[in-house]
């Protein structure tokens, strides 16, 4: 049961934090991936290669999401197993909160803006 | 494992340990620190939401296109990325118990971090000199709050880094210092993750808009 894992914690002291053991190749792979994933969005925006702004925006947002995942895995050593799954649990909870708060704010405020009476109509109502 | 005994059959009292058995020091630090980072993540999410809502309100003032220099942002981003990988090297050399090399990588990380802050402050100073102050428009208020909060975090990380270098120099790579370095590692990489959001949503999408 639990006692086994605690015993392992007591004597394995260097990497007892439940994180995956970090390796040189892991860091380098993460670094190379994130350089590529950073360079492409910058290049796309600075050169304006893609035909429309909407497409460029969607593509760079997709790159950002992928890069965040890369950083999580290779730099923050996230795995479903770390801390017996509790850090993943905290992460998933946070992501749910962030998605609700971000999309909710943008959605509500956007509707508020479009339902607001335009200023020129308001001045005519005196 | 223990054999389940039915107390009614044997008539003997059964005791349960109510207190949790002792954990080694710092046993739960990394999970606790992770939960702190997640709460910090919520702070940044709210600032991103504010920027998302207010980012288009220029109040006839300067727009992102007039203000942002993407070359400078690219340099800044690479500073933070390089500091991430050098911190990774510091962690690797720490695992191999090489104090001098750990200190060297920490120093390099600190220099990259300081370069990042330096470039960001230069950018801010340039904007303020042009009249693009936080008071100018809702867009600029949200921009300075979001990017400034991130910069403040990196500055705190730098102070923490120097503190830990002194700690390692004085006490060596003892268990407590390893734990602290591991926490700072999570903090530092987390700030890099937030910066991905900043350069994508604030700078790149701002210039695109």
Q: If you had to describe this structure to a student in words, what would you say it looks like?
A:
- The complex is a heterodimer of chains A (126) and B (209).
- Helix content of chain A is 72%, strand content 0%.
- Chain A contains 5 helices and no strands.
- Chain A has helices at 2-11, 24-47, 53-74, 86-115, 119-123.
- Chain B has helices at 7-10, 29-54, 64-67, 70-95, 99-129, 138-171, 175-208.
- In chain B, helix 2 packs antiparallel against helix 6 (138-171).
- The mean pLDDT of chain B is 92.
- The interface between A and B is large, with 54 and 52 residues.
Which helices and strands appear, and what pairs or packs with what?
The complex is a heterodimer of chains A (126) and B (209).
Chain A: H1 2-11, H2 24-47, H3 53-74, H4 86-115, H5 119-123
Helix pairs in contact in A: 2-3
Chain B: H1 7-10, H2 29-54, H3 64-67, H4 70-95, H5 99-129, H6 138-171, H7 175-208
Helix pairs in contact in B: 2-6, 2-7, 4-5, 4-7, 5-6, 6-7
């Amino acid at each position: 049961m639990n006692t086994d894992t605690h015993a392992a914690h007591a004597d394995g002291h260097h990497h007892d934090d439940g994180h995956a053991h970090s390796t040189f190749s892991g860091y380098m792979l993460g670094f190379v991936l994130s350089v590529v994933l950073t360079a492409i969005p910058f290049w796309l925006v600075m050169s304006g290669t893609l035909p429309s702004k909407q497409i460029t925006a969607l593509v760079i947002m997709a790159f950002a999401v992928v890069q965040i995942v890369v950083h999580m895995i290779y730099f923050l050593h996230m795995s479903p197993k770390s801390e017996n799954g509790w850090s993943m649990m905290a992460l998933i909870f946070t992501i749910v909160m962030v998605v609700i708060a971000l999309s909710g704010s943008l959605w509500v405020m956007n509707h508020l803006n479009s339902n607001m009476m335009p200023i020129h109509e308001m001045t005519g109502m005196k | 494992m223990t054999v389940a005994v039915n107390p009614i059959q044997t008539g003997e009292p059964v005791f349960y340990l109510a207190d949790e058995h002792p954990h080694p020091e710092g046993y739960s630090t990394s999970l606790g620190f992770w939960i702190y980072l997640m709460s910090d993540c919520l702070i940044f999410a709210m600032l991103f939401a504010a920027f998302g809502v207010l980012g288009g309100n220029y109040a006839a003032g300067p727009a992102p296109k007039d203000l942002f220099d993407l070359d400078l942002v690219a340099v800044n981003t690479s500073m933070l990325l390089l500091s991430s990988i050098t911190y990774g090297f510091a962690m690797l050399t720490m695992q191999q118990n090489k104090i001098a090399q750990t200190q060297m990588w920490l120093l390099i990380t600190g220099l990259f971090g300081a370069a990042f802050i330096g470039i960001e402050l230069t950018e801010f100073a340039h904007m303020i000199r042009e009249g693009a102050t936080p008071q100018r428009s809702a867009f600029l208020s949200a921009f300075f709050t979001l990017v400034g909060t991130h910069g403040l975090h990196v500055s705190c990380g730098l102070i923490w880094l120097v503190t830990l270098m002194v700690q390692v120099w004085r006490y060596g790579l003892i268990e407590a210092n390893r734990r602290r370095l591991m926490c700072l590692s999570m903090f530092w990489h987390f700030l890099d993750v937030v910066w991905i959001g900043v350069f994508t949503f604030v700078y790149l999408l701002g210039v695109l808009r």
